[in-house]
Amino acid sequence: MALAPVHADLLALARSARQHAHAPYSGFAVGAAVRTRDGRHFLGCNVENAAYGLCNCAERTALFAAIAAGCQPGDFVALAVVADTPEPVSPCGACRQVMSELCAADMPVILGSLGVASSQTSVGALLPDAFTLQAPAR
Fold it and tell me: pTM for this structure?
């Protein structure tokens, strides 16, 4: 099944973002792109650190850049992620949890590789029964 042109464009942006990855330890460069309701795009790449717990994935980098620019949870309409893998790459558990809090469960997530392989899923399908925590009233 071919991707919709807007999703193919988002996948191309994720491939572009991957070129900026800082992955000196794993050599596993990942790129991501998120589209907002108002048509803006935010890109992310993975950034590794010798203290592995301080690393950040491409998907979270893109979403955090959008939040830092003033976007709010629910402002996102699609996310694409790309890596040099034989099959389309899938987000890690930490990224799935962040997506479940910032994005609608039915939001499309486009999984890609450097080749032509791609597939589409949703936030809810990636993390069914996601953990939620009610924020305290302010």
Answer: 0.93
The dihedral through the CA atoms of 58, 11, 113, 1 has a sign that is positive
> Which H/E stretch holds residue 122?
strand 118-122
Report the distance separating Cα 92 and Cα 86, nearest Å.
Answer: 17
Short-list 38, 76, 39, 74, CA closest to 59: 76
Residues sharing a CB contact under 8 Å with residue 121, sequence separation 6 or more, in sequence order: 108, 109, 111
The predicted pLDDT at position 4 comes to 76
| Residues annotated as part of the active site | 59
Residue-by-residue DSSP string for 64-97: HHHHHTT--TT-EEEEEEEES-SS-----HHHHH
Helix (H) / strand (E) element for 5: namely: helix 5-18
Within 13 A of 47's CA, how many CA atoms are on the CB side?
8
Q: Which residues of 82-113 are buried (b: 16+ CB within 10 A; e: fewer)?
A: bbebeebbebeeebbbbbbebbeeebbbbbbb
For residues 90 and 81, give the distance between their C-alpha atoms in angstroms, rounded to a whole number.
8
- Predicted confidence (pLDDT) per residue in 58-71, tens digit: 999 999 999 999 99
